[in-house]
Structures are given as structure tokens and as C-alpha cells.
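dumping the sequnces here before i forget
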Amino acid sequence: MTATSTCITDLTSAQIQELIAGLGEPNYRARQLQHWTYQGLALSFDEMTDLPKTFRNRLAQKVQLHSLTSTHEVVGHDGTIKTLFTLSDGKTIESTLMSYPTAKGGTRHTICLSTQVGCPIGCPFCATGQQGFERNLTPGEIIDQVLYFSRRLRDQKDETDTDWDKPAAHISNVVFMGMGEPLANYDAVLQAVEMLNSPQGFGLGARNMLISTAGLIPQIKRLSQEKLQIGLAISLHASDDARRNELVPINKKYPVGQLIAACREYCEISGRRISFEYALFEGINDSVNHARSLAKLLAGLNCHVNLIPSNLTDSQGFSPPTRGTTLAFQRELVRLGIACTLRQRRGLDIDAGCGQLRSRLAKTMQT
Ligand code: SF4
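..and the predicted 3d for all of it:
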């Protein structure tokens, strides 16, 4: 695989049709190719048995079927799977599959995707933020993370579970919350969302997808005009500029007051509820007074707060609060009328926090 090769998943439906037309093949071959890629989860062109062999060979000379290779994997006690992928240029990203039991005895699968190699935002508590920014991912590199985990789930399926005609039916949620700032890679992320959602593509409901942002106001305004049903989450972590400047440095450019105004506008235009992610750090943003300040900031906004007791990183000075402090914070928010849930901490034994596995492996390789 070369660094410059195009991948099928980098192409829109219209571009796949152009590719097929350029190869002198009838239009329906585009549908077959997309079906094998997104529903058949094909690993090689050889699997596409209803395509003529000569055509498969010509396709293989033009495009790649995959843009990433799984090079390391860890599985946590709670079943969380963290995978390190190597890209065609040798750079690495990581993604996570989290599986939750449902009340009806089934399992919900959520995939957390990366959108950039490294991240330009530089939050000091985040392992990715400390690695710096290298490059944006292509749409195909984003989509292929979903196809990889879908294939993995299919291959480990129960023998009695034959219903794999629609892989998207087995994925509950796709969240753009891994390495990188999704809205800083806007066009590629939106193209990936479109193909993951499209019936000709993966076919996952838009409402099952969630994009997170550190608060890029121009892109939030742009997203509000897209008429998409996807969810939006803001990584807030502090309700005042002084504290947020430290925790989420992009706040110096887009301060809290302007960010919340943009969020109110987003809710009005899109008609959708917005989520706020609030990672709790002991002694920094976890007091009852901080909860009051947060409730005041969000008053009247159609929103939901996800409280996240922080995953420990290698960063100095960022520890999760005690359970008692966490529950007191949550109680105060609820008392003040803010809808709020405490996120389950997943994969604590396997570096499941954003960028932690990549960071640890990089250190291992240096020593
Ligand atoms: S927390 Fe998110 S936005 Fe901040 S540095 Fe890490 S990946 Fe980037």
C-alpha cells in the first residue's frame, strides 16, 4: 500500500460511479462494489465473486480496499477493545469498541473513532493533546475504523446469529470522540458521516452518530445549517474562561460566553438537543460551586451534561475526584434543573482514554 493510493472508502457514491464509468463498466457495478465494501465488509477484491475476475484485477490496480492495518490490540476486563491502526504512511491512530449489556439480554456496541493523527487543541489532561498534531485523516481512514470493528464483531458472532446482511444493525452508536478535533477536519468528517449514513453505504442512522468538539464556533455554526440528524457534543470541562483557558486552550480563541451563544443558536436552528462533556478533575473543576456555575451557564439551554470522572493519563496533576465528590456535583446539577448522567468508566485497565495506548506504545519503542 502506498501513501498516495486512493481507497474505495475515500470516494463518494458519485465518485465510485465515475470510477466504474472510467473503467467502461455498467453503472450497476458501482452498486455491487459499494455493497461488497459496506455490507459484505469484504477484505479483498477476490471475495467479490459476482464481479468478473478481469474487472476485479483492474479495480485492484486503481484503488485500495483498505486504508488501515490493525497493528496492536488490547482487550479490557469489561470487554472494551482498543486497537492501534497503522496508516498507509506509517502514522498511527487508535479507536475503541465499547460493548454494554442491555436490559433485554443483548449487547450494545459503540465505536469511538479518531479523526486526526494527533490533535491541534492540546488539552493538558489528554494523552493525544500532548502528542501534537500531525495530519487530518481522510474520509476513508475514518470510515475504515467502523468497517474494521464491524468485521471483527461479525467474525466473532454467535453461530446462531446469521443476520449479518446489514452490519449497521449491530452497531448502536458511532461517536467521533477519539484522537483529534473532528470539526477541524470538517469536510472529511462530514463525508464520512454521509457514507456511514447512506443506504448505499453503511446505512447507520444519523441519530446513532455523535460528533464532539472542543468548541470551534465557526464550524458549529456551519454544522447547524447542514440539516443533519447527528448529535453534537461540546467538550466543556469548565464554565469560566480562566479555568477553561487552561483545560481546553482553544477557549482563548473562542471564549465560553461566545461558545454557549453559538450552542443556543445551534439548538434553535437545528431543533436538536446538545450534549456537554464535563470531565471532573480533583480540586480543579469538581466542587459544588463549580456545579452551580455550570448550571447557571447552561440555564434554559436544551442540553444534557455527561459527567466523566477523568481517566488517569500520564499528565501530572489531573486525578479523578472521589465518588462522593462526583455524586455531590451531579446532585447539585440535577437540583438546579440540568439533565445529567454520570458516564461509566470503560477500559480503565487498557489505556482506553484518548491517545493513551498510542502514547504508551511510543514510549515503549523509545526505551
Ligand atoms: S481532549 Fe480532545 S480536543 Fe483535547 S487534545 Fe485530546 S483529542 Fe484534542
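The chain is about 35% helix and 20% strand.
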